[in-house]
């Protein structure tokens, strides 16, 4: 077998430099069923991944630790990797024996899972957590189970709530520190108290004995030990983020990891909200051991009551516009992360990806999340605060800064740009000019974005020379580096619904042919027959145009007929180019990303 190159860091791997490494990585993606091109309905596109991970062109992303990827890259079973596989096998065998009722079904499931397990041992390409996910899917489907831990998680939440009504809990959160707090101003003293409260709630949220033991009555010594527990780095990080010198109101994405513990996570969230921040709580889409799921909110009255003031977002593919609206109107949102496994950004829902993109900080709890976000060399688009308690009781707390290359456009900045464009349109109208908005392909043909900008610019200049007293809005002239498809579509919708457009023109085949004629070039085959109907961005804009025309009936729509647009899916998440047209017979319907 061809020897693969030595890899010092997973984040340094680029496609297109070594054919054997490219082939290995593609096989790795296929074996783990995370390749977008093969299964676009369930796997995130590169554009969606870039909402969360800072990825350069041709840079790979592996949803595991550097240590795990290095072991898999060896293409042989190492002692460390075998230990991880055996742990996954032990977990699934335990649950099969505990919840498979009929002996025949149990033997069938065990036998099928054993085939998968032996294949993984013989050819170690699968991430152990992905192997576990696949075996759990078999177990659940064969037993027609949705969540075998539903009763257990209800007990965990009930015990946590019971503990909150004990004198021990009151002493834990209310007792004053032994030392006198020193401060120069009252704001510092207030923050010292807030910091103390946050540290204690964080501590309680990792103290699993509270909900795992049926009768939990710790003695004074144990309580005192927990109250005085110190976390390396906690105070400076929390002070830098939330302290008195910080005047920002953060949007926070919070990832819990266990029933029971989530009751104390909600106390942390309440404290953060009281400090002026907003929080999105991301739960699992379905069963993954003790992790709280999105559906627990309905099935568990304890959790349901604790979240009764929160807004539950049911839509797994929410638009940027609707997500921002929900976030503006609510301090706490509850969403599904779209996964039924250890956090895997390839399988995250569109809503989760947008929540991540629109957040300023991710708080990730538990060893699984710690491994995914801290124990790798990737840089993410958000600051990440991760913490967990290990088996010996030690609490690990670490902060990972977002990539310095990331440039995020806030809603305020996007709206400001939209208002500037609207002002120029209004000024043109006051001069008696007709305002034309030109919708055209910009990024709908992969690898042709630069050419598309040339095409639209040449044709708009041609129209400006030929038309008197007109003001033509050219979207290609208002792009800024760092803006993705979501940002642009959100900005343009604000402009488009302003009522300032007299003529909304959609690009035609003739427009494109004329553009290449103006450039002195023949129409390339990849552009032949293209028009605005080829673009899912333009398709979305046609829907907006028809909606706007109902309110402003004098607005004209020029270009291909509307019926020709609506064969396409929603525009790809974060993309400048399109999701493909899919035949209904192949997909069982037309689905978004």
Characterization of this structure:
This protein has 24 helices and 11 strands. It is of the alpha/beta class and 593 residues long. The chain folds into 3 domains: 10-143, no CATH class; 150-400, Uncharacterised protein PF01937, DUF89, domain 3 (Rossmann fold), CATH 3.40.50.10880; 411-587, no CATH class. It has a 7-stranded mixed β-sheet, sandwiched between helices. Helix 19 (411-430) packs parallel to helix 21 (485-496) and helix 20 packs across helix 22. The longest helix has 21 residues, at 79-99. It starts with 18 loop residues before the first helix and ends in a 6-residue tail after the last helix.
Topology, please?
Blueprint: H1 19-31, H2 46-49, H3 66-73, H4 79-99, H5 103-122, H6 128-143, H7 150-164, H8 167-174, H9 186-206, H10 209-212, H11 220-227, H12 234-242, E1 251-255, H13 261-274, E2 278-283, H14 296-299, H15 301-306, E3 311-312, H16 320-329, E4 332-336, H17 350-358, E5 361-365, H18 367-373, E6 383-389, E7 395-400, H19 411-430, E8 434-439, H20 449-466, E9 470-473, H21 485-496, E10 503-506, H22 509-518, H23 536-551, E11 556-558, H24 584-587
Parallel strand pairs: 1-2, 1-5, 2-4, 3-4, 5-6, 8-9, 8-10, 10-11
Antiparallel strand pairs: 6-7
Helix pairs in contact: 4-5, 4-6, 5-6, 7-13, 9-13, 19-21, 20-22
